[in-house]
């Protein structure tokens, strides 16, 4: 199990690379992930959310209780900035109804499951990150359908109530089960071994979803052109910027500003992909947009986290915070006459 745990750590570290590899393999041999459709895709999504739930214990809920204002502010920023920004970017690039639907789906979904890892790498506030991801996931079954219906409901037929029930099943239920298992068995050695493996399982499941979409709609990826990549990149990058400066506006410290930047910018595009294929099966472009977002968010989030970490090292080298102990001793010595 220790070996599997090490593999899981490496998979989590190179999430973006794994997802890109899965997409590339699917383009070469579509049958590789052609099985990730329909009910199978729902189960795979559930595994991802279960893995997230297994990271939540009593201490995390205590964080929610102790810091409700910060988490409330962060969740409000996420569920206002990203949906409104999505429809704005779609209109700016004059996207087709299908691509618009996909981008708005991404914008109205909760924070990404990998955002906690990215916050850790960025030297952000991990507890704050977990709190934001948890709250955004809990309220997603209500908020996502409402936003989607308001922003694109007039142009796309959708089953808001059905989406609400589906999200309860795919998000809240597995998260609740995983969290309950963590609370009950967190002090058991066997459970800690299983929990250590789950991040890697989630990454592979994430990659399988992207591969499944590529297998079904791969022939139509190129038809969407560069515009969908540009739109997703602009939506994502502006989300990072607005998230960071929203945190600054509310007086948050550096770690929290970095965390809220990542939490706002990195969306659960895997969930968006699942919602697209489940509720809009005839709209290939929406699934394509969500799948491209899966890849882009994983790459950009990892890059941003590394930029934050690099900046800290650069500042430490430029303005060292420690003073040589021997130099302090020398300062106390009497000066010798030459």
UniProtKB/TrEMBL annotation:
Xref: Gene3D superfamilies: 1.20.1530.20
Superkingdom in the source lineage: Bacteria
Name of the protein described by the UniProt record: BASS family bile acid:Na+ symporter
Localization per record: Membrane
Keywords: Membrane, Transmembrane, Transmembrane helix
Keyword Kinase recorded: no
InterPro entries attached to this UniProt entry: BilAc:Na_symport/Acr3, Bilac:Na_transpt, Na+/solute_symporter_sf
Membrane topology: Multi-pass membrane protein
Membrane spanning stretches: 40-57, 69-93, 99-119, 126-148, 163-185, 197-219, 225-250
One GO location term (cellular component): membrane
């Amino acid at each position: 199990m220790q070996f599997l745990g090490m593999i899981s750590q490496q998979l989590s570290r190179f999430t973006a690379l794994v997802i890109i590899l899965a997409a590339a393999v699917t383009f070469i041999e579509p049958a590789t992930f052609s099985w990730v459709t329909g009910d199978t895709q729902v189960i795979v999504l559930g595994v991802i959310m279960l893995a997230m739930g297994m990271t939540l214990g009593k201490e995390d809920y205590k964080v929610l209780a102790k810091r409700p204002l910060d988490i409330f502010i962060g969740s409000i920023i996420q569920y206002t900035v990203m949906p409104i920004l999505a429809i704005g970017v779609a209109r700016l690039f004059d996207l087709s109804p299908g691509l618009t639907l996909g981008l708005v789906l991404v914008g109205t979904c909760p924070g990404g499951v990998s955002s906690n890892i990215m916050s850790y790498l960025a030297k952000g506030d991990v507890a704050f990150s977990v709190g934001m991801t948890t709250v955004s996931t809990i309220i997603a079954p209500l908020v996502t359908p409402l936003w989607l219906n308001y922003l694109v409901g007039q142009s796309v037929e959708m089953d808001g109530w059905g989406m609400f029930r589906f999200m309860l099943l795919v998000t809240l239920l597995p998260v609740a089960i995983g969290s309950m298992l963590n609370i009950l068995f967190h002090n058991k050695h066997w459970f800690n071994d299983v929990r250590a493996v789950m991040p890697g399982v989630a990454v592979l499941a994430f990659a399988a979803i992207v591969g499944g979409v590529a297998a079904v709609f791969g022939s139509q990826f190129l038809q969407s052109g560069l515009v969908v990549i540009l739109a997703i990149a602009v939506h994502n990058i502006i989300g990072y910027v607005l998230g960071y400066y929203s945190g600054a506006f509310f007086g948050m410290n550096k770690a929290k500003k970095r965390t809220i930047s990542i939490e706002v910018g990195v969306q659960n595009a895997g969930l968006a992909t699942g919602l697209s294929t489940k509720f809009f099966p005839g709209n290939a472009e929406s699934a394509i947009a969500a799948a491209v977002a899966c890849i882009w968010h994983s790459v950009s989030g990892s890059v941003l986290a590394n930029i934050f970490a690099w900046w800290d090292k650069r500042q430490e080298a430029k303005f060292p915070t420690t003073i040589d102990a021997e130099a302090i001793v020398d300062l106390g010595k009497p000066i010798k006459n030459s």
